[in-house]
Design brief:
three-stranded antiparallel β-sheet; 3 strands; 1 helix; mainly beta; single chain
């Protein structure tokens, strides 16, 4: 891990590109109930319960020394993704 900063400090070489790849799953949530009505002089109140809508993946590929990147979001989170 100590070699990574030194790798990015080197000049760009197309024969040895320094590429990075990352994956981040995201859970999409929604409120399960409507927000409670607010009256003058009262603080807004909201129910803490939420409903799970979907899980998606965010994939990111980048080549920092070349200035290229590509991001993709999948419709679902499965083994094939």
């Amino acid at each position: 891990m100590e070699d990574v900063p030194d790798l990015y400090a080197q000049p760009y070489d197309p024969r040895r590109p320094a590429a990075c790849f990352g994956e981040m799953p995201q859970q999409l949530l929604a409120d399960s109930q409507a927000q409670l009505a607010v009256r003058p002089g009262m603080v807004a109140r909201q129910d803490y319960e939420c409903a799970r809508r979907a899980v998606k993946n965010l994939f990111l590929w980048c080549e920092p020394l070349r200035g290229k990147r590509h991001a993709e979001v999948t419709d679902r989170r499965t083994v094939q993704d």
